[in-house]
Specification:
single chain, alpha+beta, Aminopeptidase, globular
């Protein structure tokens, strides 16, 4: 594992929106879900930096090049009566993997969670992504086998709302 002395992990700025969206497209390609990407960099920028602010992002930069990101938002635990952070996406460009960059992004996110008095840091992982599961476990994550994600997609939201 190579560590970069010039690795910087920082919050995204409005000028990062295009490169962040490119990384999101890279993640979709990795997950074989490129056809599911229907958004654009401007909508991403609006959701990151306009009011209301729906999401936040931190970027990993090596020698001035953005090579990875973590995109997240707050959730809430009623049982803990504390806020939490939900990590929507974590991605590092393939040629920069196994160099401590994913670990640096998760570590920064854990620090943010502590600063904000969060009770949980949670995310989902695809069942076929065994290498990611191994990495997450090595970082102290438990993979909850008894829980399943429920999703109502855009068209079905309208149907549900009109019942």
């Amino acid at each position: 594992m190579t560590f970069h002395n010039d690795l910087i992990v920082r919050f995204a700025k409005p000028s990062d929106s295009a490169v962040l969206f490119e990384l999101i497209q890279g993640l979709a390609e990795y997950e074989k879900l490129s056809d599911a990407v229907t958004g654009n960099a401007q909508a991403l920028k609006d959701h990151l930096f306009s009011e209301p602010k729906y999401i936040e992002a931190i970027l990993a930069e090596v020698s001035g090049k953005v090579v990875g990101f973590a995109l997240f938002f707050h959730n809430y635990s009623t049982f803990l009566t504390k806020p939490g952070i939900y990590l929507e996406d974590l991605f590092v460009l393939p040629e920069y993997r196994r160099q401590g960059i994913g670990k640096a992004l998760l570590t920064k996110l854990a620090k943010i969670a502590l600063e904000r008095h969060c009770g949980r840091l949670e995310w989902s992982v695809l069942d076929w992504n065994v290498s990611a599961q191994k990495f997450y476990r090595s970082m102290g994550a438990d993979i909850l086998e008894d829980w399943r994600i429920c999703r109502v997609s855009e068209a079905a939201i309208t149907e549900l709302a009109n019942q």
